[in-house]
Amino acid sequence: MYNSVSEKDWVEAAHPVSQNVRSDIAGAGCDKPYFEPLIPEERPDIDSPYFVYFGRIHEDKGCKTLIEYFKHFKQKSSNKVKLVLIGKNFMNEVDTSDDIIYTGFISDQKKSFYLQNSIGLIIPSPYESLSMVTLEAMIEGKPVLVNGYCDMLKKHIELSHAGYAYFNKEEFCDSLNKLFTMTEKEKAIMSKNGIAYIEANYNWKVIIDKYKYVIENITKP
């Protein structure tokens, strides 16, 4: 039982198996969370459009490159888009500015607010095995921009059609521009794609049914 298509391909390329060996993609379930709405006094004070990153603020997670790429994006454009970094800082320095906001660790309620009101999620990590934050963004109908060198993340995008993958600084900037300038119709299509992908592949009922089938048939030839 694999987390993703990429994981299955990687394992079976290293350890070829017989066609008779049963396998499936299971991963983990992702339900749309519900939180009580924040009262006005608790809402983050941000009045500009923004992209968001969730997770450890760490160079190994691609955060140093993310900041570098985003600064390049801002140098090329005159828009008011910002980048919000949410998570514990593990880097010596976080390059904050008027365009890059670091919140530190915040409640799930505030994290949900930031995601729901963002343009989309950015995942710069080159190493992921499933990426629950990607699934969480898609179930909320938000597009995701991912590091194309992470095959698993790239596969999520290819299968869902709910975002973009980038391989260099210029592709990163082009993708941000595409997401920022999407029409309402394009946003609705991408949102629908992401939700449909999660419901078809990472809904808890779908995953539990897969495991039930495996357990019930494990002794059958």
Automatic annotation (TrEMBL):
- Please tell me whether the keyword tRNA processing is annotated for this protein: no
Xref: Gene3D superfamilies: Glycogen Phosphorylase B
| Coiled coil region boundaries | none
Q: Which domain of life is it from?
A: Bacteria
Keywords on record: Glycosyltransferase, Transferase
* The keyword Membrane belongs to this UniProt entry's keyword annotation: no
What EC number(s) would the UniProt record show? 2.4.-.-
Glycosyl transferase family domain residues = 43-194
Tell me the GO molecular function terms: glycosyltransferase activity
For this entry, the protein name equals: Glycosyltransferase family 4 protein
What is the source species? Answer: Dysgonomonas termitidis
